[in-house]
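Appendix B, example 12.
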Amino acid sequence: MLIANDVSGDRATLKLGGRFDFHSHRDFRSAYEQHLVKAGVREIIIDFGDVDYLDSSALGMLLLLREKCDAAGRSVVLSGLKGTVKQVLDIANFGKLFDIRA
């Protein structure tokens, strides 16, 4: 999985690409952890625009991110959802747990 990391103001955006699965765990964690300790970052946006696959371990990674963000006083936004990625997150009722934006 490819991860582009961008910070603008109080928002950090992680633009994901490719397959978001178990093998992405380390890369995903190291991409977001740096933003949990930055004083100016209040919101972490996970952009799924270029993700073509995710599995149950990806769902677990998102839930763990949510817990860590809650503890650090940050919010998580999921964006760019489409196709089967959107369907999987809809079936898992992630819309009730996360702020989802277009």
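Residues 2-101 form a domain with the Transcription Regulator spoIIAA fold (CATH 3.30.750.24). The first strand starts at residue 2 and ends at 8.
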